[in-house]
Structure formats: structure tokens, C-alpha cells
Amino acid sequence: MNKIINYFPNISEEQKRQFSALYDLYLDWNGKINVISRKDIENLYEHHVLHSLAIAKVLNFSDNTSIVDVGTGGGFPAIPLAILFPNVKFHLVDSIGKKIRVATEVANAIGLKNCTFSHSRIEDVKETFHFVVSRAVMPLPDLVRLCKKNIKKEQINALPNGLICLKGGELEQEVLPFKKIATLYNVSDFFSEEFFKTKKAVYVPL
Question: At what angle do helices 13-32 and 97-109 cross, to 10 degrees?
């Protein structure tokens, strides 16, 4: 939790309360429905919450931005981002019903009012959004192909509407089709922890 405050010192007392509540909530839900590796739950703040917030270092979303989180699992990256950006609207999508249930219950427990949830595949989502976010859910070309239809025309942010996803490992082949338009960010430029050495954020305008 201290890591969150260290990198985001201007968060409110309410945001601190919401972030600090996540550990017990995920610990409890993870015992019933496995959304985070059991061995990894003690690293929740570094490996999941802070990692999700790398997207906020790529773009400080304007109020009234709408975002869809594709393959949200238990709510990452959307729930940490929804805490950080209370005036941004998040729609969390996952094809596995029990995972979307965990995300819904966690968001409700901490009083998030800016999240909606859908037990569905992105292929079936018709609404449009300013941005798509995801965390290592599928290869980049597949993700771009499936969610291009969901991008709004109207622009309200410092970056053009598009996709921001969190990835690890070798990305050269994945990014190749988009090399003229994609921007890769080293998450280690934002956060100094060893875990982030191989992590990247990829932005593709759509």
C-alpha cells in the first residue's frame, strides 16, 4: 500500500481507504474463486495494483473519458484505475462469469460508482469507448482486430483514442504490424521495483 502512496502522493483519503481495502477483499474472494495465483496474493499491491496503475503514467485520463477493460479477470487493470480516476467511466468485460463476479463484488465493497460489468466477450460488446485497456489478455494483433469497432470518434484526451495494454517479455513480433504507430513504454521508467524490469505498456492509436 505504501508503494501506491509513494508513486501517487496526491490521492485523497477516500482513495487511500479504497486501495487499502483491496488486500482483504481479494484475499477473501481468492479463497472462493481463484483470480490471482495463490502464491502471488501477498504481492497484490506491487504485481497487480501498481502494475495496473502504469497505464495512468502513460495517460492522465480526462474527466468523462470512457474505458473498456477487455479480459478484466478479477478487475485488473480497471479497478485500480477506477479508484485513481473517479470521474472516468470503466466497463469491465470478461468471458468467465465467476471472474466478473469477483470484480463486481470488490468494486461494490469499496463503493466504486464509476464501473459497469459485462459477462461477455469483446466481440459481443457493441458500445464505443475512448480507450481500451487490458493486461496480457491476448496477442496484440488479435486485440486490435477485435476492439477497433469499439473506439469512439470524439477525442477528449492528450493522446488520440486507442488501446493501452500491459505486456511482458519479448514484444518485437507482436508490435511489428503497428511499429509505425505504436509507442512502447518501459514500466521500469515509472516504477523502480525489480518486478517491472521486463514489463511494458503498449499504446496503439486506433
Answer: 150
For 27, the grid coordinates are 484475499
CA pair distance 6, 1, nearest whole angstrom: 9
Distance CA 44, CA 26 (A): 8
Indicate the residue type of 197: K
Q: Bridge partners of 186?
A: 200
- Please tell me whether residue 82 adopts helix, strand or coil conformation: helix
The closest of 118, 66, 65 to 95, measured between CA atoms, is 118
Enumerate the domain spans of the chain: 2-205
- φ, ψ dihedrals at 163, nearest 5°: -115, 135
Q: Are 68 and 132 in contact (CB under 8 A)?
A: yes
H or E element that contains 70: strand 66-70
- Whether the full predicted model's pTM is greater than 0.90, yes or no, is yes
Q: Which CATH superfamily is domain 2-205 in?
A: Vaccinia Virus protein VP39 (3.40.50.150)
Q: Residue 172 corresponds to which cell in the numbers above? A: 518485437
Residue 59: DSSP 8-state = -
Q: What is the pLDDT of residues 88-142, one digit of tens each?
A: 999 999 999 999 999 999 999 999 999 999 999 999 999 999 999 999 889 999 9
- Rounded CA gap, 131 and 150, in Å? 9
Letter for the amino acid at 124? D
Task: For residue 126, give the nearest of 109, 110, 146 by alpha carbon.
Answer: 146
Q: How far is it, in rounded angstroms, from Cα 203 to Cα 197?
A: 18
